[in-house]
Amino acid sequence: MTVEHTKAKFWKCALQVNPASYITYRGQNQDCSEDDYNKKLLEVCLEESIKVVGIADHGNVDSVAKIRETFNAQGVIVFPGFEIATSEKIHLVCLYPEDTSIQTLNNYLYEFDIDTSNGTKPSTKSADFILSTVIEKGGFVYAAHCTDDSGVLKQKLNNIWKNQNLYAAQIPTSLEALKEQGDQANHQILQNKNPDYKREKNIAIINAKDIEDPETLRKENATCLVKMSKPCFSSFKLAFSDSESRVRLNSDIKEKYYSRIESVRFVGGFLDGININYSEHLNTLIGGRGTGKSTLIESIRYVLKIEPISKETKAQHLKVIKQNLGSGFAELTVKSAVKHGKLYKISRRFGESPIVKDESGSISTFSPLDLLPNIEIFGQNEIHEIAKESSEQLKVVERFLNTDKIEQESGISTVKESLVTTRNNITGCSGTVILATH
């Protein structure tokens, strides 16, 4: 079955997965076969919605083929690679495109002077050489356990930290947790606030955990979230070029109910047959003149029964709807925060009132603004009017201001209270004077 990916979303990635043999590095015996271990790994990945795994055995890639075959059959993407120690004895995880052959991976290990029979032995090559070579070959590198033993920050190697080929650094928990644990020095470095470690671009912070047991994948700090349209290596690398918006720790994202438009579809009219599923985050309409961008915006406004700000723009809005919606209708699927994340469908024909239906398909008594009370829509003509009217510009700005707080902090609220008191006193005195004259 072909799966279409039409919008970007955060995919859960486990970027330091080890094979069944890894446990022997820790002086323990593996109780299950390689095949059983791989099946268990896959089972946990599917249960935990892990879509991408990076293989990071120490200086060896013998396990990659079986893991890749098992996982790919179930739609889990595998980035083959390895973890190695540099000549400075810091650990780096090197990942490569999903179709990289085992022979090619072994060639890379040979180039780094790694003895695959003793994968934990440090390379004779420097971190700078390894970083530049991996990037040159189309790969990706992150600093493993950077704040712990064999980590670049633990070793205080600021020259390596500042290398722009190092895109990401793995930390054990979260930035906030590091600060709470008293690791203020590394907290400052990771936020790019230490001048000795200052980078041109902030490094991406990730969670990944040496997976010695499939169950370890269930831990919050064993995976991180990477925003991609299609989960693949090229999208993965691209995400790290904008890591501030596209890379997250699991601890960064808590379930929150926020209102959004999930989709819109049209039956009849100019946009007949159009069915758009929106991203959970920013969406942008791009198209030439006359392709329907304004029609789409005005149709959404019409379905939600939100009128433009002036008579002129209202008349233009209704004209657009009449010409382009015609006898057809538009339907929105929305998620409502005020209704605890429940889904509703709102549809409307020209000249009729909106119809709201709940998830069961039953007609609801809620109005569109009951579901999305704070939604704001600005059409092209409205934006032109706002640009011409200072009073309308002020209204736009006021939405972002906490007027009560500003008045309180500036003393305006105190002055207002004094004026009210003075007015009441004047009113009282006026009444007394009137009584005295009688």
Automatic annotation (TrEMBL):
InterPro entries from the UniProt entry: P-loop_NTPase (IPR027417), Pol/histidinol_Pase-like (IPR016195)
Gene3D superfamilies xrefs: Metal-dependent hydrolases, P-loop containing nucleotide triphosphate hydrolases
SUPFAM superfamilies named in the record: P-loop containing nucleoside triphosphate hydrolases (SSF52540), PHP domain-like (SSF89550)
Superkingdom of the source species: Bacteria
Name of the protein this chain belongs to: Rad50/SbcC-type AAA domain-containing protein
